[in-house]
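Reading group handout, session on sequence-to-structure problems. Before we discuss, look at one worked example. The prompt was deliberately terse, the way you'd type it at a terminal:

> structure Fe/S biogenesis protein NfuA

The input record follows.
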Amino acid sequence: MVNVDITESAQDYLKELLDKQKDNDGIGIRMFVANPGTPSAETCIAYCRPGEQKEGDVVVPLKGFNAYFEERSLPFLEDAKVDYSPDRMGGQLTIRAPNSKMPRVTDDSPLEDRINYVLYNDVNPSLASHGGNVSLVEVTEDMIAVLKFGGGCQGCGSVAITLKQGIEVQLMDKLPELKGIRDVTDHTDRTNAYM
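And the output record:
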C-alpha cells in the first residue's frame, strides 16, 4: 500500500508537465528516495516513460497518468505529501517526506535500514561531539557491514578503538545476523582528525 498524498493541484500540475513531453503517450511519474534512511536522503519525482518502470514498482493511477513508486522507497515515503501552490511566478511543487531520512524501522525492515537506524540514532550522536560521523557503505554477501568514517573520525588515532569497542559492539548486539564490521575510510587524511 502506498501512503503518499499527491494533492489534486499537484496532479493537475504534473499532468500538465507530462503533456508537454515529446512522445508523451503512456508517460507517468516515478517517485523514489535517493540515499534513503540517511541524512542526505532526497525525495525525487522523475518522468517515467513506458518501459522505464522497475520490477517491484507499485503503480497508482492518478488523474490522467500513472505514478510508479519504488518498492524499496515505500517505508521512506510513508506519510509523504506532494502539493502544488500557484503564485505570481508560476507556482511551486513541494514534496514533504518526513520519513525519508529515517523511516519507521521494524524487525522486518531490510538489514541496511536497521543498520542506518542504529548508526544515525545511537552511534552518530556520540561521534558528533568530536565532529565525527560514520555511514554505511554496504553489507557484503557474507554479512559484513562496511562503514566509512567522516569529519573528526577520519584519521583519528582512536578510530580503531571506537570501531571495535563501540560501534561493532552496538551493531552486533542489536543486529545479531551481522558477522562483523569493516572500515574502508582513508585514515591517512588527518585534516579534520579529532586526535
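Points for discussion. First: The mean pLDDT is 89. Second: The beta strands are 4-6, 28-34, 42-48, 58-61, 66-69, 80-85, 92-96, 132-139, 144-151, 180-183.
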